[in-house]
Fold this protein.
Amino acid sequence: MQDVAGRPSNRVQITTDGHRMYLEAVEDAFGADVDYAMLMKIYGTNPESEVRYNPAKVLGTSREVIRGNPDPRHVSTSYVERANLSMRMGMRRFTRLTNGFSKKLANHSAMIALFFMHYNFGRIHQTLRITPAMAAGVSDHVWEIEDILGLLD
């Protein structure tokens, strides 16, 4: 939160799940200068299912404006949930019981940075038909590995 709040940008909108620790984290980082909402999912079990492992079913959601004026159309945790899934599937180091882990925090951080650099600048996303960086107007082309490695020099 502190990292995002410290960046020069326009006012941001944040959506979190119902975990109460986010209330203090957002307040500490942004103060009143944020549009913040919580999206809480209401879970239930499916009594007809007799499967060994059956995840709980989402019965509904509850939205609560915490601060500012968040746009209701953008109150969603789907974006970050999808990003986390892509990261876990793209880097097996986040999967339990594998030998793909990093022994040093610096190596782990570098791998995450490389993954997201490629994800945002070097990979054309099916729904966008361009890279996220191009969609945001940050880049005008798909970055190749040479472009990314050139940043390291």
In short: The first strand starts at residue 13 and ends at 16. The chain has a mean pLDDT of 86. The helical segments are 2-5, 21-30, 78-90, 105-122, 132-135, 145-150. Strands lie at 13-16, 35-44, 57-67.
